[in-house]
Write a structure and sequence with these properties.
alpha/beta; 15 helices; eight-stranded mixed β-sheet; 18% strand; Rossmann fold; 411 residues
């Protein structure tokens, strides 16, 4: 089996669903050699091939280190050139599987290059890029100039037509990020029978050596809720702080642990906590290594995963709630489709509307349970992730989809 995989991510890629899912699991399950088609993250003057191991290589595109708009333009042109070279690789490589992730121009090149070839074309849709462009100009138009709005409108309309009228109808099989995205794509007229949802999961082997729980030095009757992750402004984490101000009215022993965040983002959130009068009940750790972040989660009683509703982000598959459950902690989430599905199926948390007052009620509901009940909910979540959102399980489903598609093309 030989696979060609083109992706937007630059090399070296850090996404777990590329490394943990494909490199470590799907490739070996298919006994496949893989040629990744990526642009270099570092400055590079020419196209080259990098051998990662006996089974994997990277067809690496050139990249410019220039700053500003000229650097961005140069990198766009270099990426376009690299995409065009895919035609040569596919015509000469005799690939069984050609996988394109979220890239439209190269998908057209692949369809052209596959004429007369035996390889099967797969498209991986992890984010609704055309819809995101069109959303910007209707819901966020105040943030953009007229020319930018015109650009997003034209690009959104063009890529939408390209994706749903040309690329997806001609794909042999399609992977999408969530059940909600599958519904959305089916609504555009694409056959459900040639799609499967591949949500975010976790590599179970990463949990084999967990760190000990962090010693927080709090009073014995303290009840700790933790948020772990980025704290950039777009995440609207003032929502958590406002919700926690409502929690503290009814539970003076509650403590909010905010794990992660760059200095400027943390300072901004500390300012909001001070305005709300809850600074003494909020602990900020700043950026910490992943294992240390997990040790903070293990020290907490419950976890928090708010996700601002959006027509674009509703089709995504957040990783945070899966990590919390894998660490055997119950979670309060708001009603985002994928998060809600995980909590409903696992029984390991509380789902609330996206409202600080109602989210606070969810936190209080978990805090009002006994330590034994909280522990049992956490174990349910861990078992669910191990059986459903474990990349070992997900990889088998993905590999099976490839094999079934290739088999159906032969007969």
């Amino acid at each position: 089996m030989k696979m060609f995989y083109a992706t937007r991510e630059k090399y070296p890629a850090t996404r777990v669903d590329l490394h943990d899912l494909f490199s470590k699991r799907v490739g070996p399950l298919l006994n496949a050699t893989m040629d990744w088609h990526m642009q270099s993250m570092a400055s590079q003057t020419k196209e080259t091939k990098v051998t990662l191991n006996p089974q994997e290589s990277v067809l690496l595109g050139a990249s410019s280190a220039r700053a500003g708009w000229m650097g961005k333009a140069a990198n766009q042109l270099l990426a376009l050139k690299h995409d065009c070279l895919a035609w040569k690789h596919i015509r000469s490589g005799r690939y069984d599987i050609i996988q394109v992730r979220d890239k439209f121009w190269i998908a057209l090149i692949v369809l052209w290059a596959l004429r007369g070839q035996s390889g099967a074309f797969f498209f991986w849709m992890s984010f609704p890029y055309p819809e995101a462009d069109l959303y910007r100009i209707t819901h966020e138009k105040h943030a953009y100039s007229f020319l930018k709005r015109l650009f997003y409108y034209c690009r959104g309309k063009w890529t939408h037509a390209l994706l749903y009228k040309i690329i997806l109808p001609r794909a042999d099989f399609i992977f999408v990020q969530s059940e909600r995205m599958l519904d959305d794509v089916a609504h555009e007229g694409i056959e459900r029978t040639k799609m499967i949802a591949v949500p975010m999961g976790i590599a179970w082997d990463r949990l084999s050596h967990l760190p000990p729980a962090k010693k927080l030095g709090l009073a014995n009757d303290a009840q700790v809720a933790v948020y772990m992750g980025t704290m950039v402004k777009v995440r609207r984490l003032d929502f958590i702080l406002e919700a926690f101000s409502h929690v503290l009215i009814k539970n003076k022993n509650a403590v909010l642990l905010m794990v992660g965040g760059e200095n400027d983002d943390v300072l901004a959130l500390k300012g909001i906590a001070k305005q709300l009068g809850i600074s003494s009940s909020v602990i900020f750790t700043g950026l910490v290594p992943m294992e240390e972040a997990w040790s903070y989660v293990l020290a907490a009683d419950i976890c928090l995963s708010p996700f601002k509703p959006s027509p674009i982000l509703d089709s995504t598959s957040p990783t945070k709630v899966v990590e919390y459950l894998a660490l055997a902690k119950p979670v309060v989430v708001n009603d985002h489709p994928d998060q809600s599905q995980v909590i409903q199926e696992s029984g390991a948390g509380i789902i609330t509307p996206y409202s600080p007052e109602l989210f606070a009620q969810g936190i209080l509901e978990l805090f009002n349970k006994t330590p034994q009940q909280i522990h049992q909910m956490g174990l349910k979540g861990r078992e669910y992730v191990q059986n459903v959102r474990n990349y070992d399980i997900i990889a088998k489903n993905v590999a099976c989809s490839y094999e079934k598609t290739l088999l159906s093309r032969r007969y």
